[in-house]
Amino acid sequence: MNLNTMGRPSLVVLTLCLNLTVSAQSKSNEKYYKESAELRETVWAWNNPEFKVRDVPTDFSKASKVVIAHHTELTADSKSKIAYYGLGFAQKKELSIMEVVREMVKVNDKVAVDYYSELSFSVFQKKSSLYRKDNVTTYVGVRVIKADGKVKEVNADEMVLTRDGRNKKEGKLAIPDLQPGDIIDYYIATDLLMTNDFTTREYSVILFDDAPTMHHSFHAQLGKKFAIDYRSYNGAPDLKVSRNGDDDIVIDVVKKNMPAFETTLWIAPAVQLPFIRMNISLGTRKGKYGYAKAGEINKNKSADEVLTDKARSFGYDYYTSVVGGTEQDEVIKLARKKAKASGQNLMDMNDEERAAFIYYTLRFTKILNFDIDKMERSINSGDYTFNGLSSYLYNLMKKGSVDGGVLVSSSRTGFRMNEVMEEDDLTATAYVGSKNKFITIQTIYDVPFETPQDIEGMTSTKSFTIHPKGLSSFRGSKTEDATIQLAGFKVPVSGPAANAHIDNLDISIVPGETTVGVKRRTIIRGHYKRDTQRALILYEDLYESERKELGEEMSLLEKLEDNKRGRKYVDEVRNAFAEARKNQKTAFTDEAKSWFEQEITDLKDYKIESMGVRHTAPDMMYKSTFKMDGLIKKAGNNIIFEVGRIQSSPLVIKPEQRSRQMDVFMSFARSIEFNIDVKVPEGYTVEGLDAVNKNVSNDAGAFTATATLAGDLVKLKVTRRYNHSYEPAANWDKLVSFIDAGAEWSNSKILFKKK
Q: Is 615 a domain residue?
């Protein structure tokens, strides 16, 4: 489980396409099934007393599900029988880590029964800290313990098996006749082959669940060739570490009667939920060259050491850009040329102007550059995500005489700055100018000078720059000596108006029809843009727009026709562009369906008016017309317009979520606004407008709805606003108050009464 990221509120994705291959035929199948059967016999025979418990305490009896017991066995290069030598999981045990995770859960109601009645493979793999790695073989076992004590085993062998990137399958397993009061007992066993390259494998002991847990335990035995760095987070207990007679590293963790944790709604696991994080590696004999010594156990690695590693990488990136950075030199040369062609001098621009011009030149000439040998990748380049390119951008700007640096911090939902364990825990973002404005490339749609959402508000930061003496400051291989580390600065925070989704809708109602006509014009700002840009913008349109901005005379197709090698591909490229344009209508329809959660038909007049890919025009704007179903009901001769459904399915706070002790981490401050004009059908009057009005506002946010009649138009304005990306737990009731208001308003209706 990756605790350093939180792309969505949910920690667990319950439907996950996994790269699995069914075991090879005949002998391979026989071998796998034999191993699987032997492993099942071993696991079900565990003598752990917690797995013999059948009753749950009264305090947990009202929970939808209760984890009676959860236990993990982790072994590597150990002479213990726990290593399952007899199963032959790996020929070289010193290069293999074996994990078995077993969990026994009592299902108390229909919700839990539905969840476990069809287990997707991800229900198993979310319990494993090894499965996501490459080179693994995986086994699962499932059985149901009925209320009368009878045990029914489910054949899980058909679902599984060896992970392989060549094929994709999604494993699912039906659990028949599961009923409230039953206990489901299941495990996942994973064998990870390691290479002897001293690479660390991150492993987390997760000490939280969305269900109450009666007994949670972890036991590991790692051979003396291994080394471990570890840290406990957010109140998690320390590891109990000892040695056995073979000098294996023995680790134990036990925690009992754990309450249920909120794990799905606006949580930052890395700073809120208890877990223990270990970096496991094959140590070196003497622990030289930055590698851990074999058998070494290190607690709470210094964050300063990680920063030094980051500085070393930063210095090395600078070194390689100077020695071999011809691509960056080429970008600066092209920027000078394009500036001159437009009547400007690149070096006469101020830092921000020059940075923006270089940025757009880089994007067009390198990132948007059409590669005929990778045509599909070029056309779909909007789907790709980059790592921000902080060192590259810093070095590029330095070559363009733009002052700046790189801000190093943790991400706002990641590990605290003083608790990082490795370089990847840190986020690096280039900035330029005296006002420290950020430049980053995470997608082809990014614009300069926008603050990345994952570092907004960070205060514990470092600023990296290169020593003025540049290469002369290097001392042998110590590239960190070229890096100057200074105190950073507080990262600014965007407000709800900067991250907005605004829909302007003209709605027409025709008596007798169940659909309404909609003319839509949408404006999307800030952090809301990326997914919609990816869905709707065509590569060809973005390329042509940037070409014109930078003064390129020839279109992409004209450029291919003018090239001897590219000429023969012109028809193929033209057809690919035509197919993408044909599919754009479907993309517009799907986007509207997803946003409004209603059936959308007869979409036409769709157009992107602004792509939002320039800092001088950062808003994305698009329009379309269509028919929308699901808003009209008949009541005799009258028409009921279910206006509350226009906002799609609002967030509903569940009963178990209404009391909260944990702070709230949302993606970003934001606002959603609907400006709706509904024409009153001829021959009808309007009733019920007063009931539509609602206003719940406080310093955490607001839900407001107003409805007025202006001639033959009903004018509605609906706004949902979250003022901050972070709220302390003390403000939870304020959030709930306007969230509830939005949920209640979803039932709002307007009556058009026949005269």
A: yes
Q: How far is CA 648 from the centre of its chain?
A: 23
Range of the domain at 37: 20-193+204-224+238-262
The residue written with tokens 């100057």 in the block is 484
- Name which of 247, 229, 254, 212 is nearest 68 in CA terms: 212
CA pair distance 33, 752, nearest whole angstrom: 67
Domain co-membership, 414 together with 504: no
Please list, residue by residue across 356-395, b when 16 or more beta carbons sit within 10 angstroms of its beta carbon and e when fewer do. Answer: bbbbbbbbbbebbebeeeeeeebbebbeeeeebbbbbbbb
CB 646 within 8 A of CB 674: yes
Q: For the segment 465-501, what is each residue's pLDDT rounded down to a tens digit?
A: 987 665 555 555 566 677 889 999 999 999 999 999 9
Half-sphere exposure of 253 (CA within 13 A, CB side): 22
Cβ partners under 8 Å of residue 516, min gap 6: 507, 508, 509, 627, 628, 631, 632, 641
Residue for token pair 């039953």: 182
End-to-end CA distance of the chain: 62
Q: Looking at the domain assignment, is residue 543 inside a domain?
A: no
**Encoded tokens for 219:** 């036991």
CA–CA distances in Å: residue 598 to residues 421, 513, 546, 590: 46, 16, 35, 10
| Residue 624 confidence (pLDDT) above 50 | yes
Structural contact between residues 286 and 227, judged by C-beta atoms closer than 8 angstroms: no
Q: Give the DSSP per-residue string, 436-481.
A: TEEE-BSSTT--TTPPPGGGTT--S-EEEEE-TTGGGG-BTTBGGG
Q: Give me 746's structure tokens.
A: 């979803």
When pLDDT is averaged across residues 384-403 and rounded to a whole number, the result is 92
| Same domain? 218 vs 311 | no
Choose among 542, 680, 737, 710: nearest CA to 620. Answer: 542
Which of 117-131, 285-299, 402-416, 445-459 shows the lowest mean pLDDT across its residues? 117-131
* Residue 567 resides in a domain: no
**Residue 271 contacts residue 416 (beta carbons within 8 Å):** yes
Helical pair 539-549 and 570-596, crossing angle rounded to 10 deg: 110
Please return the burial class of 532, using the count of CB atoms within 10 Å of its CB with bins 0-12, 13-18 and 19+. buried
Residue 406 lies in a domain: yes
My answer on whether 588 and 640 are in the same domain is yes
500-509 and 670-679 beta bridge pairing:
parallel
- Mean pLDDT over each residue of the chain, to the nearest integer: 85
Task: Reply yes or no on whether the pLDDT at 11 is more than 70.
Answer: no
Q: How far apart are CA 527 and CA 37, in angstroms?
A: 50
CATH of the domain at 709: 2.60.120.1130
pTM for the structure as a whole: 0.86
Would you say the C-alpha torsion 116, 120, 126, 128 has a positive or negative sign? positive
User: Which pLDDT value is given to residue 397?
Assistant: 94
**Helix, strand, coil share (%) of the chain residues, nearest 5:** 30, 30, 35
User: Comparing C-alpha atoms, which of 206, 270, 201 is closest to residue 6?
Assistant: 270
DSSP conformation class of 284: B
Looking at the structure, tell me whether residues 185 and 334 fall in a common domain. Answer: no
Which residue, 357, 395, 388, 541, is CA-closest to 452? Answer: 388
**What is the C-alpha separation between 671 and 526, in angstroms, rounded?**
11
Q: In this structure, which amino acid lies at residue 718?
A: V
Q: How many domains does the chain have?
A: 3
Task: Please report where in the chains the tokens 């906002």 appear, as a residue.
Answer: 647
Alpha-carbon distance 294 to 228, whole Å?
9
DSSP per residue over 578-598, as a string? Answer: HHHHHHHHHHHHHHHHHHH-S
- pLDDT of res. 10: 25
* Position 6 confidence tier, pLDDT thresholds 50, 70, 90: very low
Better-scored residue on pLDDT, 83 or 561: 561
Interval 150-171 mean pLDDT: 59
Beta strands in 540-689 (DSSP E): 600-610, 620-628, 632-635, 638-641, 664-665, 670-679, 684-687
